[in-house]
Amino acid sequence: MDLVTTICDWSEKIMAGDLGCKIIAIPKHKIHTKTINNLNLLGSMLQTQTLNSEKQIRLHTEHTKTISIIKERETIAHELHDSLAQTIASIKLQMRVLDELLQTTINSELSIQVEKLENSINEAYSELRTIISEFRAPVIGQSFNQRMNYLVQKFQDETEVMCYLQNELDKNPSQKIQIQLLRITSETLTNIKKYANANVVRILLNKNDKLDRYQMLIEDDGVGFVYKKNIDNKDGFHLGLNIMADRAYQIGAKFNIESERGEGCRILVENIKL
């Protein structure tokens, strides 16, 4: 096969996408050697540039997805603020007026029930404000570990309870899994703040080498509780636990709770595939 035919075959392979192919021929003249070397160098440069372009496209795609998620979060936050938050704020005002009117009556049982309802509304409003704040929190340039640290620091500032985060993950979770783990963490810390009376909280993220899957453990040394599955829990505490379990199932994980009165609580999200 002559040199021209060899070069033609090489160029066809290049155009077909085989950017790593090289011209292998025994040149009969020095100028042929130089030509072959230059063409092979050109092929290598083209391959490098193509790989760089593909990398830039992937990064741009990921950035576009992140921007899209941020815009969606902002939209949800605005909708929550403009509709539900305003409605709850209005109900709070009406309940306060009703409570003041009931102070002049002798129906103590009704006053007690109204006070409980008012406390529940205040609690719902506070939780909604927290959710809105978290939806508006910036995510560009923040790693999963940074966002977990934000939740931990916020919890410590609000409660003065020591909270230790130990992240041993060897890679970042996908965006979908990050969102659910962050929400489970946020909801767990909220429950600990409201109900546990804990002194220490520990959050551990690591890998279960036997299963080749990952897990997240959140445990506290608080008062503990008795948790019963598959019952109609009307109180916000048990409803919150069921919501967390559902979040775990959405990412294909298992959700387990271990707790007894006076023994604190352990929440384990396991079998996570990052």
Summarize it.
The chain is an alpha+beta fold.
Q: Ends: how far apart? A: 52 Å
* CATH topology annotation of one domain: Heat Shock Protein 90
Instruction: List low-pLDDT spans.
Output: none
Strand portion, in percent?
5-15%
Number of discrete helical segments: 6
CATH superfamily descriptor of one domain = Histidine kinase-like ATPase, C-terminal domain
Mean pLDDT: 81
Rg result: 30 Å
> How are the strands of the largest sheet arranged?
1-2-3-5-4
Largest sheet: 5 strands, mixed
CATH class of one domain: Alpha Beta
Describe the structure.
The protein is an alpha+beta fold and 274 residues long. Among the domains are: 3-59; 142-274, Heat Shock Protein 90, CATH 3.30.565. The protein is built from 6 helices and 5 strands; from the N terminus they run H-H-H-H-E-H-E-E-H-E-E. The protein has helices at residues 3-15, 30-102, 108-136, 144-159, 175-196, 236-250; strands at residues 162-167, 200-208, 213-220, 254-259, 265-272. A 5-stranded mixed β-sheet has the order 1-2-3-5-4, with helices on one face. The mean pLDDT is 81.
